[in-house]
Amino acid sequence: MDLCVIVLLTIYPQLQSSQVREFRRAQVTCESVYYAAQEHSTLDPLLALAVAAEETRFKARKSHKGAQGPLQVLPEYWCPKDKRGKLKPKCDHVRAGLRALEYYVDKRPSLRRALEAYAGAGPSTRAYAERVLVRLKTLQAVALALEGDDVESEGR
After folding, report:
1. DSSP per residue over 32-49, as a string?
2. Which of 26, 83, 107, 150 could form a disulfide with 58 if both were Cys (CB 3.0 to 4.6 A apart)?
3. Cα dihedral sign for 28, 113, 132, 1?
4. Which of 98, 56, 108, 105 lies closest to 78, judged by CA?
């Protein structure tokens, strides 16, 4: 998907040959976030990409607080549990992150407030929300430009 390549080139502006493998893994993750948001969520897939880019830059990692996946979701709150309340062994962290993000978007009066709540507590939540919103606007502009290119090429 062209959009993920463009998103990743903003993260890796001077891609080195030593980063190609990491870039490809990030591209696969980006595409999985985008398609999961399209298929299993009411969210704008571009918002999901903006959050994942800000949270992890599409790298697989676990935070010091236990958040996992590209959207840095806390499994104990957002992953499925069995009848006894224990986490099931398999959790799709992308879908769990999308559920969490959807929850906050539905429960807050604005996208900015939803992003602040998604980020958690603390003084840095406003800055986080602002960075995600700026990235979202950039992604929307890129997506619009890509659509225009598609329309142009179809007309030829």
Report:
1. HHHHHHHHH-SS-HHHHH
2. 26
3. positive
4. 98
Sequence-distant (6+) residues with CB within 8 A of 26 are 8, 11, 12, 57, 58, 59
* Tens digits of residue pLDDT in 3-26: 999 999 989 999 999 999 999 999
Residues 6+ apart with CB under 8 A from 139: 3, 7, 46, 49, 50
Helix, strand, coil percentages, rounded to 5, for the chain: 65, 5, 30
Q: Which domains does the chain have, with CATH numbers?
A: 2-143 (1.10.530.10)
For the segment 109-129, what is each residue's pLDDT rounded down to a tens digit? 999 999 999 998 778 999 999
Residue 73 DSSP SS3: strand
Tokens of 40: 């299993």
- Sign, Cα dihedral of 101, 102, 103, 108: positive
- Say if CB 7 and CB 30 are below 8 A apart: yes
Dihedral sign (CA 5, 136, 10, 27): negative
Rounded CA gap, 35 and 15, in Å?
25
Burial class of residue 30 in the structure, from the number of CB atoms within 10 Å of its CB (0-12 exposed, 13-18 middle, 19+ buried): buried
